[in-house]
Amino acid sequence: MRYNWEEIFKTTSSEDLYRIYKGYSLKPKEAIPFAKKELERRGFDFNDMDNNKKRWQLINALEDKELEHIGTQTRETFYIPFKYLPLVLAGLGLLVYFIIREENKPFDWNEFWFLMGFFTILILVNNTISMYRYKTRKRLQNKIDRLKKELHCNNIAEPEECFQDKNVFQQDVKRKKKELETLSLIMGIITLIALTALMFAKIYKITK
Questions:
Q1: Angle of helix 32-41 relative to helix 14-21, nearest 10 degrees?
Q2: Domain residue extents for the chain
Q3: Do 140 and 68 contact (CB within 8 A), yes or no?
Q4: What is the rounded distance in angstroms from the CA atom of residue 180 to the CA atom of residue 37?
């Protein structure tokens, strides 16, 4: 089977093309000259690998920042400062109390403390993840600023202009964003189904 390497490599990153050119991939040897030709078309400087590697690091950092932004938008909205945690737990306690309370039956304290423990752990895990992602974004931004400075890109509005394969970068980010959004949607649906099942189980228990 013959491949149209010229078309395939138009949407391949310079880093991957260089690996193919150097023989560090599983691509057949016939692809090597096409990889070199595409790199030359983009104006790739084979004698300045130090800056090339910095550009690749910048690309990866920008991609990570774009993808991290998707994950943090929702989580930061629901971040609960620890100083407000006692008040939130008190409100949850009242809510849980009225939900599980059944008339003419002793109150089930075991179920109450189980649910309160579950919600407390959920809040703490959510806050921990939010803080971790905030620090990750900050670290990525510091890395991006450092690489832009080293590559003399500080005066450029769009940091993607610092490298030759801007279109490839944008397409790759869009593809990864779509994959991440699809995964987030699937996880959301699974969570909704699980919560709905728990609610119906509770209703069934009450009406039984």
A1: 140
A2: 1-47, 48-180
A3: yes
A4: 33
